[in-house]
Amino acid sequence: MTTANESNLPILEVQDLHVSIDGQEILRGVNLIVRAGEVHAIMGPNGSGKSTLANTLAGRPEYTVTSGKAIYKGLDLLKMEPEARAREGMFLAFQYPVELPGVRAWQFLKAAMDAKRVHAGEEEMGAREFDQLLRSKVEEVEIDPELVRRSVNEGFSGGEKKRNEVLQMTLLEPTLALLDETDSGLDIDALRIVSDGVNRLRRPDNAAVLVTHYQRILNYITPDQVHVLVDGRIAMSGGPELAEQLEARGYEWVREETGAVVE
Asked: What are the residue boundaries of the ABC transporter domain, all occurrences included (predicted)?
């Protein structure tokens, strides 16, 4: 049987995407193809539209698509509700993970697992089976077991919130992971754990889009392609070496090379 990777089919294809927030245009024609088995890094200066791209793809309602297309696994992504995108295997790791008071982390995780399984035509996971799976994943991502018994992210440190998202991602095994500056505010140990989680997820049949402002996480996660988003457009693309150039030279040289506006 031919896999998506072998047939070189894209998991995500973004075509001339324009997005506004409160009437202000942020994305001004983004084009991007992410194929199975690939990790793409989106870099750029503050305000360039990196997080807007990730959040728009995930379906957050405050982002208004004014034109363009986004095709996910052959589906018209922009016509899908956010929960439908999640059930189809899309995962968003937030830059600032939200707290859910009163919702136990393990209950949240089991509900998410069951929703995905039911959507795929499978039965819900039994309590004992899920507990065994959760224990193994908690150990794998080096998270305090006590955290999964507490309310989601309530009272968690910044690093604990990011580790909790890696736990969610490890359990759900998404087809497309959107990581919105998941390295923000992490110390070296937490950065390593988050990066290990992303690397363990990599398979020939899935993909990830990693939004980051700095090159440091790319010391741990080697992307297949790096894209520089400037003024709402991808101004430059290249291999992992492009991230090193950005670290050394900043974003001003992108303007000089391409004529893009760097604010």
From this structure: 12-256
